[in-house]
Amino acid sequence: MLTLYRPGSGWLHRLPAGPKLLLVLFTVLAVSLLPSHWWTAAAAAAAAALGYALAGLGPGMAGIRELGRQVHALRWVIGITLASQLVFMGPEPAVANAARVTAAIALASLLALTTRVTELLDAIERGLRPLQRLGLDPQRIALLLTVAIGTIPVLGRRANEVREAQRARGARNNPRTFVVPFLIVALKHADELGDALTARGVR
Amino acid sequence: MTNPSPLSIRGGTRQLDATGLARVAVFAAVVAVLGLPGGFSVAGGVPITVQTLGVMLAGAILGPRLGALSMAVLMALVAIGLPLLAGGRGGIGVFFGPSAGYLLGWIVGAFVIGLVVHAGGRKPVGWRTLAGMLTGGILVIYAIGIPVQSMVTRLPLGETVMMSLAFIPGDLIKAVTATVIVMTLVRAYPRAFARVWASTPAPAPERVR
Q1: Do A187 and B36 touch (CB under 8 A)?
Q2: What's B111's domain CATH number?
Q3: Please, where are the H alpha helices in B88-191?
Q4: pLDDT for residue A198 is more than 80
Q5: Per-window interface: A 153-172 vs B, CB < 8 A
Q6: Residue of A nearest to B49 (CA)
Q7: Domain segments of chain A as ranges
Q8: A79-127 pLDDT, tens per residue?
Q9: In a domain, B3, yes or no
Q10: Tally of domains in chain B
Q11: A172/A182 Cα distance (integer angstroms)
Q12: Taking a C-beta distance cutoff of 8 angstroms, is the pair B11, A179 a contact?
């Protein structure tokens, strides 16, 4: 299953999902709200480095290496932010804002890196329980999310089948000729899935 | 097999039934799969994402409520750390980045598209579908995305608007493509919409196609 999770046993890994979510949100928000000055860039970089170094992602420099991977993944966001702000606003806000946004996104990634999807699903179900009074059904929401997660690899395979079938007929790979058959396959799958859920007592 | 009876999308209970739940989950997965690498012909060397095409189709095919819900499900999955956005992005961090507003715009956009395309419970027609794609799929998404982007990056609104104009041509092409796809489905696979349409101009329900 595709996820961003990296197995580990550091303190952040062991922290329960709920408090961890709050901790990460608080840190990210604090970084996001830094003003746009030269020192912001240094502060944001320091916050990100500190966060990754102290998260207990692995021995030695493993945390910093992970931060490097995250920043590399964000190179487009950084590039576009930096370039547009350099053109319109000058070097100080450009560097400060690019660093601020990058650090915020990188710090937020710590949640996904250290928490299994199933743990977060459980946390969502628990967190939504108070809303039951408002007519929200946390279990149904958790079921919906779980079914969607399970459906992604299935549809990924179906998409490849559709592509291969087209290639076999010599059709060019373009969105329009792919999307219609793929949608029909997907919606038929939805019909079967609905029947399967009904058969298992979901109404 | 499934009976093609209408889903109780509006009438009766507001609770999501199993068929609706399956369609919502599947469409969230469809949009996720459209963002996976696997390759579409790149236009002039620029990799294009057809993920926003999926957003437009969600509203048009599922209707306002379920379409918006499927996008909310996708956002929830992204937030809990699945790399489902084009380019393998994911995690709660994307909601603190420059594209946060556009992502929230997907939810509202799908809703608006569903409203326009299925206005009055009538069968989708070309011009109304295109109008829905343009308002919900472009106008609404930009109207939410641009101010948030400006807020996150602190680039003034005017300059952010100018930057965003670069994406308009691609989005116009996607709106037209989505319209063509929806009209193809109306003719070739009307069951996709899982609803009974109010009186159509030329009532021919029994015609075999």
Answers
A1: no
A2: 1.10.1760.20
A3: 100-117, 126-132, 141-153, 157-164, 168-188
A4: yes
A5: 154-156, 159-160, 163, 172
A6: A175
A7: 11-115, 128-199
A8: 888 888 888 888 888 898 889 888 988 898 888 888 888 888 888 888 8
A9: no
A10: 1
A11: 15
A12: no
CB-CB contact of A103 with A8 (8 Å):
no
The closest alpha carbon to B135, from B162, B166, B167, B108, belongs to B108
Report the gap between the CA of B29 and the closest CA in chain A (Å).
5
pLDDT digits over B155-201, tens only?
Answer: 888 888 988 888 888 899 999 999 999 999 999 888 888 887 776 55
Domain assignment of residue B201, yes or no: no
Closest CA to A148 of A202, A200, A190, A203: A190
Indicate the residue type of A32: S
The pTM score is 0.84
A22 shares contact with chain B (CB less than 8 Å): no
Residue B41 lies in a domain: yes
Check A117 against B29: CB less than 8 A apart.
Answer: no
Domain that holds residue B121: 20-193
- Structural tokens at position B126: 């070309």
All residue ranges of chain B with pLDDT < 70 are 1-15, 37-49, 199-209
